[in-house]
Write a structure and sequence with these properties.
By secondary structure, this protein is an alpha/beta fold. Helix 3 links the parallel strand 4 and strand 5. Helix 6 runs parallel beside helix 9 and helix 11 crosses helix 12. It is globular, with a radius of gyration of 19 Å. It starts with 6 loop residues before the first strand and ends with a strand.
């Protein structure tokens, strides 16, 4: 790692939770992810969802074409009540599928085909445990009578804790955690339990979304929480347990669907993800210090690769503490995408090869 007072390089990182969509949106957003990340765990919640290895392979080919050379999509399967053990065996054998995603039905965008009752897929989870295929979890209950700000905490108590007891060797990634409860659960669990954390959950709390008016581009699921939870996530991200790593959950939605009477959940951060994470680490740890740069590299580039059993990437990427203005919009054939913090100044810039 090379360090200067305002510049340093790290191993080019992995985004271990991202939404690339398909079609015209994929053609635009895949390039943003590929510029900043060597690999990414690709979410399977397309319409229709990526429920088997064949569909995953076809989607992988479309991503590779859109992203260009040098980027490796790491595919996942979308679990449903009807997923069969044989599909898990195929996924484990082919090598390019790196996990299977549990969406509780109705929990987030395009999750209507998700699992309605965890007990319906126990046989699948048993096979995943046997094969060493990670389970990636959107950790919220969907009961209408549970307050939206409590749904992650209730999920831990009602579903995740019993699940880890029943399948003690199952590798689990608790995706895009948002609460102190989740951070503490992962920290106290075995080495087979890890979590991704987004830049926006590290940077913001629910006041940013709600105080002084509703700001739809901060709306995501799981929803932003109180500041006590943001502080707990920062502590986890800055720690050395190896159980917490970067997953942007970057999710593109066109403006008309985002700013509507029932706006879509998701923050688009892919084009500036590395700089946004750097904002967090610099404020907390001062990224002019080599020890802080090492922490940043661990979180962005090493801990996730270690958990998934992947080699570290060969390429490096350089950040300068030079301010830049985030684009007001990103144009696509389907309509404009508004990135998080559109039009605002941030402190860091990635230096790309000419």
């Amino acid at each position: 790692m090379t360090s200067f007072s305002t510049s340093f390089s790290i191993i080019k990182p992995d985004d271990l939770h991202v939404h690339l969509r398909d079609g015209a949106l994929l053609e635009i957003v895949a390039k943003h992810t590929a510029r900043q990340f060597s690999r990414a765990i690709i979410m399977p919640n397309l319409v229709p969802p990526v429920t088997n290895t064949q569909l995953a392979g076809e989607y992988k080919a479309r991503i590779e074409k859109a992203a260009g050379q040098g980027f490796e999509p790491l595919m996942t399967l979308y679990l449903t009540d009807n997923t069969e053990m044989q599909e898990i065996q195929k996924a484990a054998e082919n090598g390019f599928v790196k996990g299977a995603k549990l969406y509780p039905a109705g929990a987030t965008t395009n999750s209507d085909s998700g699992v309605t009752d965890i007990s319906k897929i126990y046989h699948v989870l048993e096979e995943m445990q046997k094969q060493g295929l990670p389970l990636l979890i959107h950790g919220e209950v969907t009961n209408a009578d549970i307050d939206i700000f409590d749904r992650e905490k209730v999920f831990i108590e009602a579903i995740l804790a019993p699940l880890t007891a029943k399948f003690p060797d199952l590798k689990i990634v608790f995706e895009h955690i948002t609460t102190k409860d989740a951070a503490e659960f992962v920290a106290a669990s075995g080495q087979n339990i890890a979590a991704t954390i987004t830049a926006h959950h590290l940077l913001f709390n629910r006041n940013h979304m709600l105080a002084g008016g509703i700001r739809p581009h901060y709306y995501c699921l799981p929803i932003l929480k109180r500041n006590i939870h943001r502080e707990a996530l920062q502590k986890a991200a800055l720690g050395d347990s190896g159980k917490f790593f970067a997953g942007t959950d970057s999710a593109p939605h066109i403006l008309a669907k985002k700013e509507s009477s029932c706006g879509c959940a998701g923050c688009y951060t892919a084009a500036y993800a590395l700089e946004l994470y750097a904002q967090v680490f610099d404020k907390a740890e001062d990224l002019s210090k080599p020890a802080s740069q090492a922490k940043f590299e661990n979180f962005m580039s090493k801990f996730g690769a270690d958990f998934y059993g992947l080699p570290y990437n060969n390429e490096q990427i350089t950040l300068h503490k030079i301010s830049q203005k985030i684009a007001e919009k990103i144009s696509t054939p389907e309509g404009d995408i508004i990135p998080l913090l559109a039009g605002e100044e941030i402190d860091w810039s990635v230096v790309y090869a000419a």
